[in-house]
Design goal:
- With 292 residues, this protein is mainly beta.
- The strands form three sheets. Strands 1, 2, 3, 4, 5, 6, 7, 8, 9, 12, 13, 15 and 18 form a 13-stranded mixed β-sheet that branches. It has a five-stranded mixed β-sheet with strand order 10-20-19-16-17, with no helix packed on it.
- The chain is globular.
- 13% of the residues lie in helices and 38% in strands.
Length: 292
């Protein structure tokens, strides 16, 4: 075959491959590209996934967790409602996963392994939605957290395999009622309402893919003042270890979330406050606080 034909066919194959990578997305190809921000949004009666492109959102057709395509439809970011970035079947959160959050210079024995607990999927709220303090709550605290987004079904995976099952990360706020949690005047046996009450799980606004998730700066600001700040390389149990550990006992599904624990010290929030959680490379999750 003449060389010019071979060269032309090779270039054609490359162009087709590039076009497919751009227009026909799939979960497995997301990590091969540069960092990308995906989101879930509502515009009128339409609820869809999108890809952030500057100040515009390119609407995607299909399922972010399997196969999708980029459409010709775009929306101004300011014109869409940002929703929690997934609809998880399960929401996990880790207790005591930063040394700076533990009241001990050494790691207590029970925290030598990951300590996950459940949050209710119904506690999730998106960008700009209010954190509602229940009328009988006494002490509600903020907790800035990096949140892992599971990308495909995950069961019995090793730490080395774990990141193959992670789509990306987002920001979260593990809002916690300390009295119900049992820090003082213990009332509840479980943390079902202390951690899982409606609106106690702000998350978003985007899913960040294609980054080194183990070295991202997490910061929380309360009314503009920095209250928490630490990098994810300070996690006691990192993302691969945590995903692997949970998967030994519970099957995780696409869209499930893992709140990875909060750093430093937390304080109470009240009606009228504004809480911002910023995750490096992802953006800012902003939620006002109101009373029920």
């Amino acid at each position: 075959m003449p060389r010019w034909i071979i060269g032309w066919s090779g270039r054609l194959a490359f162009c087709l491959e590039l076009a497919c990578a751009v227009l026909l997305g799939s979960w497995g190809s997301l990590h091969a590209a540069d960092p990308v921000k995906y989101l879930r949004f509502q515009k009128g009666d339409v609820v869809a996934y999108g890809r952030l492109e500057g100040e515009r959102v390119r609407q995607l057709d299909g399922d972010l967790f399997s196969t999708f395509s980029a459409t010709d439809t775009t929306h101004a970011l300011a014109d869409v409602k940002l929703l929690p970035p997934t609809r998880p079947t399960q929401v996990f959160a880790l207790a005591g996963n930063y040394r700076s959050h533990l009241n001990d210079d050494k790691i207590p024995p029970k925290y030598m392994i990951p300590q996950p607990f459940f949050k209710s999927p119904s506690c999730l709220v998106g960008q700009g939605e209010s954190i509602v303090i229940p009328k009988d709550a006494k002490t509600v605290h903020f907790e800035a957290e990096l949140v892992v987004v599971i990308g495909k079904t995950c069961r019995n995976v090793s730490p080395e395999q774990a990141l193959d099952h992670v789509l990306g990360v987002t920001a979260g706020n593990d809002v916690s009622e300390r009295i119900w949690q049992g820090d003082a005047e213990a009332k509840d046996v479980q943390w079902w309402r202390a951690k899982g009450a409606d609106t106690f799980g702000p998350v978003g606004p985007y899913i960040l893919t294609g980054m080194d998730y183990g070295n991202l700066l997490l910061q929380l600001r309360l009314n503009g003042k920095v209250m928490q700040e630490e990098k994810s390389d300070h996690l006691i149990h990192n993302i691969p270890k945590t995903v692997s550990f949970i998967s030994q006992y519970i099957t995780m599904h696409p869209g499930d979330l893992i709140f990875m624990g909060t750093p430093g010290k937390t304080e109470a929030i009240k009606a009228g406050d504004v809480v911002e959680v910023e995750l490096e490379g992802m953006g800012v999750l902003r939620n006002p606080v109101v009373a029920e």
